[in-house]
Amino acid sequence: MADFTLVDPKGWEYDLHSVYSAYIGYFQMYNVPWYERSWGHLFESFEEFLAFSWPVITVTDASSGRAHIVTRLNSIGAFIKMIKTRFGETLPQAPNILQISPFETASRHLRHVSDYSSYKKLHSTLPAVVLSALKTRVRSGEPKAIKNLWEKKDKTFLAIDFEWNERNEKTVLEWGYAAVRCGHLEALGHWPPVPDTNYRKGHYIVAEHVDKVINKYCPTYPWLFGESQVTPKAKLPQIIQAVISSLASPDSETAANHLVLVGHGIHGDLMRLEEMKIRIPHNILIVDTMTFERNLYANGFRGVMPDPKSDKARLSGSHLSLENLLYSLTLPLSPNSPSGQRQPSPQPPLVLPQCTLHNAGNDAFMSLFALQKLLDPRGTQVPTIVKKAKTNGSGFSNGNGGKFNTVNGIGMTAPVGTSVLNSSASMPMMTINGNNPAAYYSGFAVTAIVPSLSVPSSNTVGRPASTYDLADEFGQMQLSMPRANGGGAQQHLTSPPRSGLWDRRTTKRMNSFPTARADG
């Protein structure tokens, strides 16, 4: 096994161990006394069978995803020819040899196995081969591989999204995420996940760019599923790293990570993570909802739908932007499906909440919802928008029983009876040149991450309950606390107007479907 030669995997289709097994079965079926023949010692054990020095490679089966040590048909013919030359007997080719179709297309490392120890070493590398192929399958959007991940109910799906400056992609303005921990929900018997209560979510705004960097063609919009947090630019990588570390399992060369990264046109988001030097385990699986949906449509699982740019039927292999993907979920499936029996039964039209995209938190949340909806069309509930608390005109909300304080231009909610350090205190405070960091997000509650010191007081009122409770993430229902976002009629999804045709994310934003009407 010291030589190093690369070969094309095409034609390497026969599992080596199944060749030996097929011959033993052939001898049994046709009553061949192989143990009395001169060549019988070659079949006394699999180790003796390997003495022929078989040329092999490791590949995975395109249909099953299992890894195999395979050889070629002409190598089996060479083995039969060797028996005829050395022992003077003709051995037919055994039937029922396991034949696979290699998933890999790149050149593979050729090895020669002549003893059981070398075969055992090669066999120990098969889990790594499976992991490598699985990462490729999931990244390429293979429907079967991604559906298997969801149906196992043991993964954590983390959807992420960045919003960056149109003039400089390295200038990050926002970061948002949404995560669902399927293993915890399944253990408690709470399945399928409910987006409103079972998605962990967050939205962070870079303080240094508030009111300074505003995109012209694709401006950002407020977060609609919670309260945003303002954080210094230097702290954002730490926050992202902490979120990923809290959900990921240890790195491994032989097993997939429990964490699955999700995004719509995720290539740009991965570049931002790399620029921030965010450490991601190498065994993490990555799902691009754009690629996944394209393959679903190409294989006939989504029926026939109109093209977003014309009135004609959508072409196979075309991409959908996140806006178009969400809008396509509201359309009834056409019965004229080119895939015949693979076409699912028609679904009733779906009504989505009015959600404006081009916000990192909104995009991440709706990307995770879209993935779940594509995987479980019937069991996925529609999310609702969080009702914001009343603001005091500066974009910040007053807490229950609290009063609004401003320190160095930062709005904070402080309970009654507590004191907050002023600008002359020695504690470090986050300053944004005296500007209100929520001015651009006027009318929406934004929470600033600011170090503060509270003085104990006898009449201190407890901190108001958060709109997001971790208990709901584990499937526990809060019966005593009504949800703030439970009421209100829902409207069809509408795409925000665009002031130009140029788009800074060609992989994520495309022309939208015609706007749906709520009364249609």
From TrEMBL:
<dbReference type="GO" id="GO:0005634">
    <property type="term" value="C:nucleus"/>
</dbReference>
<dbReference type="InterPro" id="IPR048519">
    <property type="entry name" value="Gfd2/YDR514C-like_C"/>
</dbReference>
<dbReference type="Pfam" id="PF21762">
    <property type="entry name" value="DEDDh_C"/>
</dbReference>
<feature type="region of interest" description="Disordered">
    <location>
        <begin position="481"/>
        <end position="520"/>
    </location>
</feature>
<feature type="domain" description="Gfd2/YDR514C-like C-terminal">
    <location>
        <begin position="156"/>
        <end position="294"/>
    </location>
</feature>
<dbReference type="InterPro" id="IPR012337">
    <property type="entry name" value="RNaseH-like_sf"/>
</dbReference>
<protein>
    <recommendedName>
        <fullName>Gfd2/YDR514C-like C-terminal domain-containing protein</fullName>
    </recommendedName>
</protein>
<dbReference type="InterPro" id="IPR040151">
    <property type="entry name" value="Gfd2/YDR514C-like"/>
</dbReference>
